[in-house]
User: What shape does this take?
Amino acid sequence: MAAAREGANSNLLLLFICWFLWLERNEAKQRGDRMNITGVIWNVKNLLHNLKRARLFTRDAWNGCKKVAEELEIVVQRRSKPKSIIVQWLKPKGGGGTIRDEHGRLCLAYCEKYGVATSIEAELFELRTGLKLCKERDITSVWAEVDSQTALELLTEGSRGPWWNTYLQ
Assistant: This one.
């Protein structure tokens, strides 16, 4: 049903109007009432909007009857191309841990967002948060585990590492 040639929608529009007029005439006769022209116009507009949404009407097919299309509130202007933009997503670093008692039972679980950081920074922030929580709860015997060998080396071998890892207070 797609209109292929320029101005072809005007022919279809005439057919739709005639069809809905004929339907309304028959329904009015059945009701024993007068025709409802507003309903005919609504039916034509609704059908045209549905055909447009289904992309069965091309923009060029409205040439020669653009004024009618505007009256029927059917947009016929050319679409502008969407602008391309480059987007970069920075994965937020965060982490957490657990605090367990001497029997391995969970006492506390925590998680925290650290913003954009390296994985080593995130590991050190997680450890710092866990140690602070232990200190707040007067837990003095602590066994800490970290996933990063580099973070472990920074803590145990006296390596200073980058300056920002030195000041994780």
